[in-house]
Amino acid sequence: MSKAPRGQTVAVVLAGGRGTRMGADRNKVLLELDGRPVIAWSVAAFAEHPAIDGVLLVGHRDDLDVLQAIADEYGAALVAGGASRPDSERAALAQLRPAIESGAIDTVLIHDGARPLVSPDLISRVADAARRGGVLPVLPAPPLLERSTMQPPAAARLGRAQTPQGGPATDLMAAYDNAGEYAGTDTVSYLERAGVPVRAVDGEESNIKVTYPPDLRRAHALLAQR
Ligand SMILES: C[C@](O)(CO)[C@H](O)COP(=O)(O)O
Fold it and tell me: Which residues does ligand 1 sit against, CB inside 6 Å?
C-alpha cells in the first residue's frame, strides 16, 4: 500500500512586537547576541533543522528592512505582523493559507522570535508531535508553587509554557478562523478551544525568552556553555 505524500512542515517565527521592556534603542530581537541578532539565532535554529521545510518570519513594520536581510540570509520568507501576537499569527496563517488549503503544508509550528536558544531536540519533539495534534513544550512549575496550598491535582496541571507550539496546519487555520474575538497568548489555546487534542512535551530550561536585560546576559552565558 502506498503512503499518502506528506506535506511540508513550516515554522513561523514571531518578531512583530516592539520589545520595549528591554529598554534598548531598538527592538530587543535586533540586539546582538554573540555576533548576530537575537532573531537570527531563532530563524537559523529552524532554517537549519532537517524536519523544517520552510521558515516564515513575522516582523514589526518598523523593522522590515533589517529583518528582510536576516530572512534572506537564512532562506526565510518575511511578512509584516499585526498589533498583537494573535494578529501576527493571523498574518502568518493568511500568508500560508493557499499552501495549507492545497495540502502543500500540513504542519505549522509557531515560535517566539525572542527565544533564540531553542534546541534541535526540542524542535524535533514538537515537529513530530504536531503532525498528530496540538503540541506545547512545558517546564515544571517553579518550586514556590509546590509549597503552596494548592491540591496536587491542580498543582500537577501547572507548568511554564514555552514555544515552539504547533499542530496540523488545517486545524490551526480553522481554529484561528473560528476564534471570533478570542485573543490568546498561546497558539495551542486556539486548538484547545476548537476541540483539537493538545499534548505536552518536555520544554527546556535553556529555551529562555529574552524580555529584560538580565535575560540577554543569561542567553550569553548559556551560549558560552554550549
Ligand atoms: C509560551 C508563551 O505564552 C507564548 O506566548 C510565552 O512565550 C510565555 O512567555 P513568558 O515570558 O514566560 O510569559
Answer: 112, 161-163, 185-186, 209, 211
Domain ranges, residue 159: 8-225
Read off the pTM.
0.92
Give the distance from CA 218 to its chain's centroid: 20
- 91 within domain boundaries: yes
Long-range (24+ apart) CB contacts under 8 A made by 214-217 are 216/22, 216/28, 216/31, 216/33, 216/38
Phi–psi pair at 81, nearest 5 degrees? -85, -175
Q: Which of 139, 185, 204 to mutate to test the pocket of ligand 1 (most atoms within 8 A of CB)?
A: 185
pLDDT tens digits, 50-72: 999 999 999 999 999 999 999 99
Is the torsion defined by CA of 129, 137, 37, 63 positive or negative?
positive
Our count of domains for the chain comes to 1
